[in-house]
Amino acid sequence: MDDYLTGEALRAALARLNWTRERLAVAAGLGEATVYRMLAQNGAIQARRSSIDKVATALAAEGALDRPKAPGELDPLITVALPAELIRRMPGRFTSLTRLWAQSMETQDLEDLVRRLGGATDRMSSVNVGDDGGLRIGLLGHGLRWASNNMVGRPLMELADQDVAVSASERYWRSIIANEPNLAYCRRGDLEFTVLSVPVRHAGRQAVVSWSELGRPDLWR
Fold first, then answer.
1. 5, 93, 183, 197: which is deepest, by most CB within 10 A?
2. Gene3D superfamilies given for it (predicted)?
3. Where are the domains of the chain?
4. Tens digit of pLDDT for each residue in 65-90?
């Protein structure tokens, strides 16, 4: 199956089996509340990896899902840091990232920046430095396959996919420490995207806004 178990796939599997969440909880050896939270999510489910595996394994045993991949079987996530100035050499290629770059030169206030960009979008996210000094998730677009709405306000490193958490954390800290935009190309399997992260401030705290677009920057002539 895919690298993730999604809420949509989980609900569809239950419908095919005509199972209740109570029956799934028993089959997976989990509490009903845990299963309920997983079923209520859209996109990639955010829960303990062990809980996701138990649910997926129980459904796979009934033929409703493919066997879940073990963590070591996931395709590696490759992250390549690029000079942020490349964004200016690709006019018309990554229009969202170009807009983010341009507006970040005008303001470093998170709310003002998002307003200038027309509001939060499906592939936009933000983090801020929390009281504990770690990064916490702020904005979270629905088009980001690695997260779900229940992660808003949570520590970034609590993401179920640790490869994604580490890659994002490194990009965000680079922007915060250098106080400048950074551009990166990320790839896992056949999924590839380019992401621009810019430093901002929110409620007096350091923060970062990121916007990603599918595809790879290519300046080959």
1. 197
2. lambda repressor-like DNA-binding domains (1.10.260.40)
3. 7-73, 78-214
4. 765 555 555 678 899 999 998 988 88
Q: Is the dihedral of CA 159, 161, 166, 171 positive or negative?
A: negative
* Rounded distance between C-alpha atoms, residue 45 and residue 47, angstroms: 6
d(CA 69, CA 62): 17
Is CATH 3.30.450.20 correct for 78-214? yes
What pLDDT score was predicted for residue 109?
96
Residue 145 is encoded by which pair of tokens? 């396959």
Q: List the one residue out of 30, 27, 34 whose CA is nearest residue 13.
A: 27
The Cα-based distances of 57 to 3, 63, 97 in angstroms read 14, 10, 40
Residue 158 per-residue DSSP state: G
Question: Per CATH, which fold does 7-73 belong to?
Answer: 434 Repressor (Amino-terminal Domain) (1.10.260)
Burial of 203 (0-12, 13-18, 19+ CB in 10 A): exposed
